[in-house]
Each structure stands twice: as C-alpha cells, then as structure tokens.
Specification:
The protein has 5 helices and 5 strands; from the N terminus they run H-E-E-H-E-H-E-E-H-H. With 152 residues, the protein is α+β, with helices and mostly antiparallel strands.
Length: 152
C-alpha cells in the first residue's frame, strides 16, 4: 500500500461499522497484512483502525533483528492515527494468516489500545475472513488506564 497506508473512507454512520463500512475496515486490515515486514517470524499481521470521525488508519507488524524493537500492527495503526491528530476510536480489525484461529492482540497492544478507552469494538479475523467481535473491555478486563492516574 503506497502513500502512507491511509485513504479517506466513505462517511461511516455513527456507532459501530456495519455493512460496506465494516467490509472496508476488514479489507484494509487484510491489505495492511500484505505490507508486513516479518522476515524472522514469517507471521504477517495487519490492523485497520476506525476513528470516531470515520477515517481508517492501517498498520502492519515491522520486525527488527533486535527482536524487542519490533512493532505490532495494532500499535502501528494507533500511532499513525495519533500522529495525524486522532485520539478517539470506534473499532479495529486485525488480520493474519493463522488458518483456523482468530488473531488476537498481544498484551502490550491491548494496553496501548486501552489508553484510548474501552468502549470500542475489536474484530478478530481468521485467514478466510470470518471474524468475531469483542469489546476492548472484554479483551483487557479490570484494566489500568488514564482515569486511574486522576485518583492519586
């Protein structure tokens, strides 16, 4: 995907993505997966993040020979959106080639996602395009977030 991986999305209805908007979000996660740089794990992952304003930002995993410096697709998409001024999100779709298993974000990605609220959907897909939907609060129950720092 050239040009930074972001393309304007058609105006999405308020609430969670449905119909063609959901299909677009899922397709963008698949497209992002195809851009993954994963020469060590050979485990490509793509993510597409829907902002509250209806824009979609995609990201892919980028590995490094110094393993700890790699970047997950979910965090790449979030950082791309943040760098463009977006901090409110409605949904994220995640894609991989895991066959019969749904891809789920790692713990670090769940915590980064939590930084921006718990009230959004995460579409966990299989390689064939089927998916399940989880609320972020389901993926990271009893989470710690910015609101906890205000209690000190």
């Amino acid at each position: 995907m050239e040009g930074g991986g972001q393309r304007p999305a058609p105006a999405a209805p308020l609430g969670q993505p449905q119909g063609e908007h959901l299909q677009l979000l899922l397709r963008r996660s698949q497209e992002a997966k195809n851009c993954a740089y994963c020469p060590y794990s050979r485990f490509p992952v793509g993510a597409a993040l829907l902002t509250a304003g209806g824009e979609i930002f995609s990201g892919c995993n980028v590995e490094n020979a110094c393993y700890s410096l790699g970047m997950c697709a979910e965090r790449a998409a979030i950082q791309k959106a943040i760098s463009e001024g977006h901090t409110s999100f409605r949904a994220m779709a995640i894609a991989s080639d895991m066959g019969d298993h749904f891809i789920a974000p790692c713990g670090a990605c769940r915590q980064v996602m939590r930084e921006f609220g718990t009230d959004w959907d995460v579409y966990l897909t299989k390689a064939d395009g089927t998916y399940v939907v989880k609320r972020l609060e389901e993926l990271l129950p009893l989470s710690f977030g910015p609101d906890h720092l205000k209690k000190v």
